[in-house]
């Protein structure tokens, strides 16, 4: 997917970014969570509302809508995680 397929928005406080897929409005949290964990992210919370993960560069929160919150003040970090999210983790959705 190209950059046009999602929106990367800075959250208030400039400490996080939201990745908003434009063509996806529902995902299977279990499937996507397994993909994220297979890449070394550690799941720190899992419920029906969201799943949170801790990683080397950032902490992330995944929602059933496909949105992803990237807790990092660095745009480059958020953009690289957003690309991974859209191209790999959300592949097939």
Oligomer: single chain
CATH class: Alpha Beta
Please bin the fraction of helical residues.
Answer: 25-40%
CATH architecture grouping:
2-Layer Sandwich
Beta content comes to 25-35%
Euclidean distance between termini CA atoms:
12 Å
The gross shape turns out to be globular
- Which sequence of SSEs, written as H and E, runs from N to C? EEHEEEEH
* Secondary-structure class: alpha+beta
Largest sheet: 6 strands, antiparallel
Physical arrangement of strands within the biggest beta sheet: 1-2-6-5-4-3
CATH structural fold name: TATA-Binding Protein
* Number of helices, counting only DSSP H or I runs of 4 residues or more: 2
Uncertain spans: none
* Mean pLDDT figure: 94
What is the number of E strands?
A: 6
Q: Roughly how many Å is the radius of gyration?
A: 12 Å
What's the number of domains?
Answer: 1
Describe the structure.
This protein has 93 residues and is α+β, with helices and mostly antiparallel strands. The protein has a single domain, classed as TATA-Binding Protein (2-Layer Sandwich), CATH 3.30.310. It is 27% helix and 29% strand. It has helices at residues 29-38, 75-89, and strands at residues 6-10, 17-21, 42-46, 51-54, 59-62, 68-71. A hairpin with a 6-residue loop joins strand 1 (6-10) and strand 2 (17-21). The protein is globular and about 30 Å long. The mean pLDDT is 94.
């Amino acid at each position: 997917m190209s950059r046009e397929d999602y929106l990367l928005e800075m959250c208030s406080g400039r400490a996080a970014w939201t990745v908003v897929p434009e063509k996806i409005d529902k995902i299977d949290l279990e499937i996507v969570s397994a993909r994220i964990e297979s890449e070394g992210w550690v799941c720190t919370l899992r419920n029906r509302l969201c799943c949170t993960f801790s990683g080397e560069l950032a902490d992330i929160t995944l929602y059933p809508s496909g949105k992803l919150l990237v807790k990092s003040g660095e745009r480059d970090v958020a953009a690289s995680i957003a690309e991974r999210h859209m191209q790999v983790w959300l592949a097939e959705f």
